[in-house]
Write a structure and sequence with these properties.
The chain is α/β, with parallel strands linked by helices and 283 residues long. The protein has a single domain (4-280), classed as TIM Barrel, CATH 3.20.20. The protein has ten helices and eleven strands. It binds zinc ion (2 copies).
Length: 283
């Protein structure tokens, strides 16, 4: 098992410490590589996204760490870019022109209007009480409509491209599973998820196994029952902790690798000398 992590947050977004603190924890745990992926700037300000005016400082700080720790650990700079709609996502020139090592595409918001303002966003992440209110008020209390909308957005994100990795690909189930009428086994859930996997395969993207909630809630994204479907499609995977606290850089990694092995995977993807390579689970 390679010790690395490419999905992480720091104080440039909603992470709880300086980037260097994460590097120190990663070094102490014997990591080979560590990547930062701050929440991308949005057309509006939120408490968890980066501000566009902080981008230069972010890039400079991670570049400084790359140099400082050269020979000890490989440091990479990425972004977790929100897909909002066809006008605002990782494929637009702003994100494509940034000097990044990789881009993770994720969905946290479903726009309820073409006007991209925070008040027009249905948030799928965050507190369940807010999610429940959103399904009630904006999706007529029909969780299927919310799920459908999520997968439509996810398909559009993969189609739009400009990303290397799909972040927490089925995060929609985290809150949906508590809403009446939801079922992770229902055709109306399973079919769009598998169609999304098919499109990911066609576009040649990687999918992360996100372990942020594995130790705490026994939850992964993708859900462990769908890992086999990823494996059958030969979709390259990597294990990411999506940590916001330095002491969680390695959270759920060993358990995540075990889940991958149980599902039939033989390898994960790793950045080595700046290039994505397949590495055996045994390495
Ligand atoms: Zn995310
Ligand atoms: Zn994240």
């Amino acid at each position: 098992m390679q010790l690395s992590n490419y999905h992480s947050h720091c104080n440039f977004c909603d992470g709880r410490s300086y980037p260097e603190d994460f590097v120190k924890f990663a070094l102490a745990r014997g990591f080979r590589a560590y990547g930062f992926s701050s929440h991308s700037p949005l057309p509006f300000e939120t408490f968890w996204n980066m501000s566009r005016e902080d981008m230069d400082e972010y890039l400079a700080e991670i570049a400084r760490l790359k140099d400082k720790y050269r020979g000890q650990i490989e440091i990479y700079v990425g972004l977790e870019v929100d897909y909002l709609d066809h006008t605002y996502n990782a494929s637009i020139p702003y994100f494509q022109n940034l000097p990044l090592d990789y881009r993770i595409g994720s969905i946290h918001f479903l726009p309820l209007s073409p006007v991209l303002k925070e008040e027009n966003m249905a948030c799928i992440d965050g507190a369940y009480s807010d999610f429940e209110r959103t399904v009630d008020s904006s999706f007529g209390g029909d969780i299927r409509r919310m799920v459908r909308r999520y997968f439509d957005s996810a398909m559009a994100m993969v189609e739009a491209g400009g990303i290397d990795i799909v972040g927490h690909i089925d995060k929609i189930y985290m809150n949906s599973q508590r809403y009446p009428g939801f079922s992770i086994d229902a055709d109306w859930y399973r079919k769009p998820l598998l169609e999304l996997f098919d499109l990911v395969r066609e576009k040649g993207l990687m999918v992360e196994l996100n372990t942020k909630n594995l130790v705490k809630k026994q939850e992964t994204y993708p859900h462990k029952q769908y890992l086999k479907a990823l494996c059958e499609r030969h979709i390259p995977v990597l294990v990411n902790s999506d940590c916001h606290y330095p002491d969680l850089v390695n959270d759920g990694r060993e358990e995540g690798f075990q889940l991958l092995a149980d599902a039939g995977f033989k390898s994960t993807m790793e950045l080595v000398g700046g290039k994505w390579e397949e590495r055996s689970l045994q390495d």
